[in-house]
Amino acid sequence: MRSAPEDLTARSRIRDAAIELFGRDGFSATTVRSIAKASNTSPALLLHHFVSKDGLRTHCDGYVVETIRDLKREGVISASQTELIAQLSAIPELQPLVWYLRRALQDGGPAAAEFFDQLVADAVIYMEEGVATGRLRPTRDPKMRALMLTTMAFGPILLGEHIGRHLGTDGYDADAQRRALPVMLEIFTDGVFADRDLIDSLQAQLKEDQS
Amino acid sequence: MRSAPEDLTARSRIRDAAIELFGRDGFSATTVRSIAKASNTSPALLLHHFVSKDGLRTHCDGYVVETIRDLKREGVISASQTELIAQLSAIPELQPLVWYLRRALQDGGPAAAEFFDQLVADAVIYMEEGVATGRLRPTRDPKMRALMLTTMAFGPILLGEHIGRHLGTDGYDADAQRRALPVMLEIFTDGVFADRDLIDSLQAQLKEDQS
DNA sequence: CAGATCACTGAACGAACGTTTAGCATATTG
DNA sequence: CAATATGCTAAACGTTCGTTCAGTGATCTG
Question: Regarding predicted confidence, which is higher, A201 or A165?
Answer without folding.
Answer: A165
